Amino acid sequence: MSIEELNRELVVCRRCPRLVAWRERSARHPPRRFQAETYWARPLPAFGDPAARLVLVGLAPAAHGGNRTGRIFTGDESGNFLFRALHAVGLSSLPESRRAGDGLRLEGALLTAACRCAPPGNRPAPEEFDRCREYLERELGLVAGRRVVVAFGALAFEQCARALRRAAAPPPPRPRFAHGARVEIGGHSLYACYHPSQQNTFTGKLTQKMLRAVLRRAIAESRRLSLAAADRPRRRA
User: Fold this and answer.
1) What gap in Å lies between CA 137 and CA 89, rounded to an integer?
2) Could you give the angle at the alpha carbon of 208 between the alpha carbons of 207 and 213, nearest 5°?
3) Smaller CB count within 10 Å for the chain: N or C?
4) Closest by alpha carbon to 216, among 97, 85, 114, 105?
5) Residues forming a β-bridge with 106
6) Looking at residue 203, what is its pLDDT?
7) What angle do CA 148, 77, 162 make, to 5 degrees?
């Protein structure tokens, strides 16, 4: 399956009645500053290069962020903080992501989420995570071989670990979240990073320096994997 086929299936998903109601209600009742805008109000597809070894995973779109703009981590302060870091480390062509179709490109990374619809209170229910995890698993499976995954926040980290453990034989012990930690699951690498929420960035729990340090470690590993994969056909020849 291609990313285009997967996205066509994903954007019409209505598996979670509570999330469907919330994303559509948010679009019908926007705050005053967004009343002139047309909301995306559907599940968010992944953004970036599906063939990249590096996958960046957030929690879920914000009701008036990604649910409005049609791109994950776009349209709110969390996204602004993240994209400044992505641009600084060479993954994003622009330092600000405004909305789908703004010309921004990700190079060498795929940006996605553990839950694709905006949840009330910014927290999906366990059964909603369970229904949505299939999409993340299928995205991770688009590339043969190892991938490097960076999860933003403990909830996204848990869902990434579950997705990777499901394909591992035998499944390893459940890892614990700690900022900057790296674990191997089924041959894949999973990095933990604090979520770039305002609660974390305004208090200094997560700084640009901290975020970029995790990203640079993950980028270096993903590039080593890409070079090794490119070198294997030459060795066989």
Assistant:
1) 26
2) 100
3) C
4) 85
5) 92
6) 97
7) 30
How far, in Å, CA of 224 to CA of 216, rounded? 12
Q: Is 123 left (phi over 0), alpha (psi -120 to 50) or beta?
A: beta
Nearest to 60 by CA among 133, 165, 149: 133
Q: Is the pTM of this model over 0.90?
A: yes
Residues 6+ away with beta carbon under 8 Å from 236: none
Please answer whether residues 49 and 107 qualify as being in contact, where contact means their C-beta atoms are separated by less than 8 angstroms.
yes
Q: Domain coordinates of the chain in residue numbers?
A: 3-236
* 10-residue stretch averages of pLDDT, the chain, 237 residues long: 92 98 98 97 96 97 98 97 98 96 96 98 96 96 92 98 86 92 95 98 98 98 89 54
Q: Which CATH architecture fits 3-236? A: 3-Layer(aba) Sandwich (3.40)
